[in-house]
Amino acid sequence: MKRIPYSPPFISPRPINEKRPLWSVMIPVYNCGIYIPQVIQSVLSQDMGEEKMQIEVIDDASTDVDVETLVKDIGKGRIKYYRQVENVGSLRNFETCINRSKGKLVHLLHGDDRILKGFYQKMENLFEQYPQAGAAFCNYVFINEKGEVCGRRPPEEKKEGILNNWLIRIAEKQRIQFSAMVVRRKVYEQLGSFYGASYGEDWEMWVRIAKNYPVAYTPEVLAEYRGHTGSLTWKKVNSGQIFPDLLQVIKNINKHIPEKGREKVTNRTNKHCAHLFVGYAIRICKEKHGFSNAQVLIQQALTFDKSPHLLLRIGKIYLRILMHKVSKNFWV
């Protein structure tokens, strides 16, 4: 079985006569043991009971800590644990999460993220109020390794409800993180699981859902996405794999966009991606002074866009790199 499937993996429907909970909170983890207690506690503080909520940790053969013991100690028997026989990669681990889920609503909550008080009740209310929605998500904030808020996501709408023109908006750039998103299991059953790349695969999924279903939203901040240098994203950034992954994801996303507006959407996507890469280059310079890696990211950014705004931003980076040779404190 390939670690990165070329097409959406099939999700098996649950048995017709099976007694099912409303919620499945599935927590995929891999070598993020330092954060697992936080994510578990954030869920348990909103536990709706076993009849209504399945909670399970899916371990992709972690080597940093004994995840099973950690889950047992914190969960006190409330949380189920499943370990992959071998490391299968993030996409296959997500697939396992969804196939093992029993609930009608599935929340894939990564082991290094957290949710805030009221998340599950608000999401449940959204699905009740908008039964046509195939998925729903909330606004969220960015946190660092210490759990401190380091960035805020501007709201998609001022009021909650079904998002307008959502397919085009989400196709233009990534706007959602896993921690904020809940998907009906039947949607995964119809559309399949994540595929194509292990960076940006969620973006393609959110576009795929938007093409086939209305999506509900609340501007309330009820989730936290943690950015840290040990994450899969940063491993991709430092290895250079982020570039081919993103190209593949954009190619897959284009399949979902109506041909009439595809070129306009692609142009906007390219601009967003260019600035994303420049942003990564700046962060690498600030945190590690990895100027060679930063230069690679800048070159990749220029394959997406060469607008004056981008060139000006890149010029400032090179100026800072030059100044760094004079003062190591320039980035502070």
Automatic annotation (TrEMBL):
<dbReference type="InterPro" id="IPR001173">
    <property type="entry name" value="Glyco_trans_2-like"/>
</dbReference>
<protein>
    <submittedName>
        <fullName>Glycosyltransferase</fullName>
        <ecNumber>2.4.-.-</ecNumber>
    </submittedName>
</protein>
<dbReference type="GO" id="GO:0016757">
    <property type="term" value="F:glycosyltransferase activity"/>
</dbReference>
<dbReference type="InterPro" id="IPR029044">
    <property type="entry name" value="Nucleotide-diphossugar_trans"/>
</dbReference>
<dbReference type="Pfam" id="PF00535">
    <property type="entry name" value="Glycos_transf_2"/>
</dbReference>
<feature type="domain" description="Glycosyltransferase 2-like">
    <location>
        <begin position="24"/>
        <end position="159"/>
    </location>
</feature>
<dbReference type="InterPro" id="IPR050834">
    <property type="entry name" value="Glycosyltransf_2"/>
</dbReference>
<keyword id="KW-0328">Glycosyltransferase</keyword>
<keyword id="KW-0808">Transferase</keyword>
